[in-house]
Amino acid sequence: MPTNLKNTRNDFLGVDLGIAKIATTSDGKFYSGTKVKNIRRRYFRLRQRLQSKGTKSAKRKLKQRRQKKSRFVADVNHCISKRLVEVAKGTQRAIVLEDLKGIRERARKGTRKTVCKTMRQVLSSWSFYQLRQFIEYKARAAGILVIYVDPRNTSRTCSKCGNVDKKNRRDQKHFVCNACGHALNADINAALNIARRGVDVIQPNAVA
Ligand SMILES: [Zn+2]
After folding, report:
1. Is the pLDDT of residue 81 over 70?
2. Dmax (CA) of the chain
3. Which residues make up the environment of ion ligand 1, defined by Cβ < 5 Å?
4. Could you tell me the pTM of the whole model?
């Protein structure tokens, strides 16, 4: 653990992973995935068409497309992870990600309802697993700490007053706190909560 961490919110770069924007940081920056989303959609449509054909050449074409898509997603993941680690290194902050292992266990135990839709999408998508791996090894190489925090209610908690209510998250994009009225982009709000939880992991009694 770097000794220069002062255990305040400013020492942590919270990163929220999602579908529309691949990564959103507690700095309020988006790392977009529109291109990836389109490519994925195109690939799924093509796969359906080729699978229904079932011929040898269709299978070959499918394999080529699969490899091309993997390369593209890996390229995007490399770019995003590189950028995130650069930002963390440039500002001497630890990177904070949601600990999805916990969520996976809870999902297995049958409390699926607590897992929000976005999180299920994140879990079911291999490219996010790869992105997390890339962030981890690039951070390690740069001497940047990666911290995992409890993902529960990160999208329902107000990053300003701490009020937890699922109605706070109005839709995919908008967060409006029904206690203090604080309004901001839902992904940025989640990233701010993730960053704050990094404080508790480093020093359980610290006040953010
Ligand atoms: Zn609030």
Report:
1. yes
2. 62
3. 158, 160-161, 163, 177, 179-180, 182
4. 0.78
